[in-house]
Write a structure and sequence with these properties.
The complex is a heterodimer of chains A (135) and B (118). Chain A is α+β, with helices and mostly antiparallel strands and 135 residues long. Chain A has a single domain, classed as Histidine kinase-like ATPase, C-terminal domain (Heat Shock Protein 90). Helices cover 37% and strands 30% of the residues of chain A. Chain A contains four helices and six strands. In chain A, strands 1, 2, 3, 4, 5 and 6 form a six-stranded antiparallel β-sheet that branches. In chain A, β3 and β4 form a beta hairpin. In chain A, α2 packs antiparallel against α4. Chain A starts with a strand and ends with a strand. In chain A, 39% of the residues are buried. Chain B has a single domain, classed as STAS domain (Transcription Regulator spoIIAA). In chain B, strands 1-2-3-4-5 form a five-stranded mixed β-sheet, with helices on both faces. The chains are: A alpha+beta (135), B alpha/beta (118). Chains A and B meet through α1, α2 and α4 of A and α2 and α3 of B.
């Protein structure tokens, strides 16, 4: 499996959410995704970046193109040093929100991508890896 | 960044052409309500033709501004939602129920007239 260099955006300010989804869309375009999937990827990134911005002291989002024999895709990795998520099944429920939002965030992201893994440790942070494949 | 709001007779017209961050969206919400108050506009069209992404936050701001305007007595129609944006919103689980929409600005104005009984 060969991989392109990883590109990352540090999420500290609100504008970094926009920066992350713009960079993600660029990478998705390079990987060969169509317009609809580009929008799905940019939206998933926006949700992940906003979670870092709202709930943690900072973190980053990294993207890379996955290019192997069978398939091509984009990997999105969200890493933060936040408080961690105590009950992952709760945040994966539609409509659950602590910020007064729509509660569409994480379950929404899961529906927008093809693979979704979340690992979280209380007091240490959360790591989310999402992958979308080119059809 | 401010999104311009144009007045046409008793309608307000907005075409969102900037990459919307959270602050811009919130600022727009306030600006629009102020403008409705100042002008006494009865209808508003928000055109989203140039918007390439609507995430859950922007969707909430848009849905809220429709309800807020409604409370003040002005009807809002969202127009020009791109195919990719429509797909993404439904995947996200956001249905924007009770929000009047139309294909484009022209259809939006027709819908406003119907909603307002003009």
């Amino acid at each position: 499996m060969t991989m392109d260099l990883q590109s990352c955006v540090t999420i500290e300010k609100e504008w970094d959410i926009v920066k992350a989804r713009q960079l993600g869309r660029e990478v998705a375009q390079k990987a060969g995704f169509g317009t609809v999937d580009q929008a799905r990827i940019a939206t998933a990134i926006s949700e992940l970046a906003r979670n870092i911005y709202l709930y943690t002291d900072g973190g980053k989002l990294c993207f890379e193109i996955i290019d192997n024999v069978e398939q091509k895709g984009i990997s999105m990795l969200s890493v933060d040093n936040g408080p961690g998520i105590e009950d992952i099944s709760q945040v994966m429920e539609d409509g659950y929100s602590t910020s007064g939002g729509l509660g569409a965030g994480l379950p929404g992201v899961k529906r927008l991508v093809d693979q979704f893994d979340i690992q979280s440790e209380k007091g240490k942070g959360t790591e989310i890896r999402a992958v979308k494949w080119v059809r | 960044m401010r999104i311009p709001i144009l007045k046409l007779h008793n309608y307000l017209l907005i075409s969102i052409q900037v990459e919307m961050d959270d602050n811009t969206a919130i600022q727009f919400q306030e600006d629009l309500l102020d403008k409705i108050h100042q002008t006494g506009a009865s209808g508003v069209v928000i055109d989203l033709t140039s918007v390439e992404i609507i995430d859950s936050f922007i969707a909430k701001v848009l849905g809220d501004v429709v309800k807020m305007s409604d409370l003040m007595g002005a009807k809002v129609v969202l127009t020009g939602i791109q195919p990719a944006v429509a797909v993404t919103l439904i995947d996200l689980g956001i249905h924007l129920q009770d929000v009047p929409t139309a294909l484009n600005l022209e259809q939006g104005l027709i819908k406003l007239r119907q909603e307002l009984g003009e």
